[in-house]
Design brief:
By secondary structure, the protein is an all-beta fold. Helices cover about 0% and strands about 55% of the residues. The protein starts with a strand and ends with a strand.
Amino acid sequence: KYTIYNAAGQVIANGILLNNQINVSKLINGVYVIDIEDNGNTVQKKFIKE
């Protein structure tokens, strides 16, 4: 599963990963942080939507 946060730390989107892809077309341009959880392990990454 995944959770996307905006720069203020608010949850913007979350869901279940399908085919290792997440549709971010509805997000406005900016900096986001995504948490991806798989088998009890969580990875956090920052990304920029342009």
